Amino acid sequence: MAQTKTICFANNKGGSGKSTTCANVGYSLSTLGKKVLLIDADMQMNLTLQFFDDEKSLEMAKGDKNLYIGVVEQKDLTDFVVPTEYENLDLIPSSTLMSGIEFQLFTKWQREFILRQGLKKIKESGKYDYILIDAPPTLGCWVMNIMCASDKLVIPVEASPWGLFGLANMFEFYEQVKLISPSLEILGIAITKASERKNYFKQTVETLSSLDNVRLLSSIIRIDSTVEWSQDNSKPVMAYKRTSRAALEYMEMAKEIMKYADR
Question: What's the CA gap between 187 and 153, in Å, rounded?
């Protein structure tokens, strides 16, 4: 039985395209026949909203089967999994209550490993090939939880003048996590929201390519209005418009992530 790989998408810089990348890479993997579990760990609930409409997302957020309840009550998260309408693709939804998760974790024993423990039975079951986690744009105990529960880290970076802001802090935080979770590895940096006509696109690529011991994924996600339209319809890009440039680019990124995740 193949081992389940857990990959988190994290960047302390907001607007980096984390949720969109996580959602569309996850969907692309599912169309390749891989069984995927998505985990929405962000209070903004963008990952949940990518697959369920506002009404259903709010219902789950207010109910007792979302990630916040599972983590605070330190439950086995198996019972918190919700099937999406797509084959091979399930989700653990988020809640707006996640805004208070740091406070809830503060007094708990071995608080950095609560999410890892909650996912233990799911990983051991071998039901999923990949678990993808969308982290919030912060650095703290909760993101440390997410990284400690993961095998690999993908850092989405927006190709903009502000896209690289705070990246050094992200690497410093990663090194802190490595002290208590040595097996965590950076799979790579994923460039998102790119426009090759802009001067700063080339600058972004050059800067990221010059980083030591950090892989820059060759697949790049360019700006495409189809992404916004798909989000407005609560669908992954490929399900909304399979032939769009964004759909093809996310598929290429999924294949590249799959190649490096299985090493």
Answer: 5
**d(C-alpha 9, C-alpha 20), whole Å:** 10
Instruction: Say if residues 249 and 159 touch (Cβ distance below 8 Å).
Output: no
Both tokens of 154, joined, read 């993908």
pLDDT at 110: 86
Instruction: Report d(CA 255, CA 261) in Å as an integer.
Output: 10
pLDDT at 161 over 90: no
**What is the total count of domains within the chain?**
1
Look at residue 98 and tell me whether its pLDDT is greater than 80: yes
> What residues form DSSP beta bridges with 194?
222
DSSP string, 2-46: PPPEEEEE--SSTTSSHHHHHHHHHHHHHHTT--EEEEE-STT-H
CATH code at position 155: 3.40.50.300
Residues, the chain: 263
Which token pair is 23?
Answer: 């959602």
pLDDT in tens, 162-173: 778 888 899 999
More confident residue, 85 or 207: 85
Structure tokens at 81: 């999994």
Average pLDDT over all residues of the chain: 94
Which residues form the domain of 149? 5-261
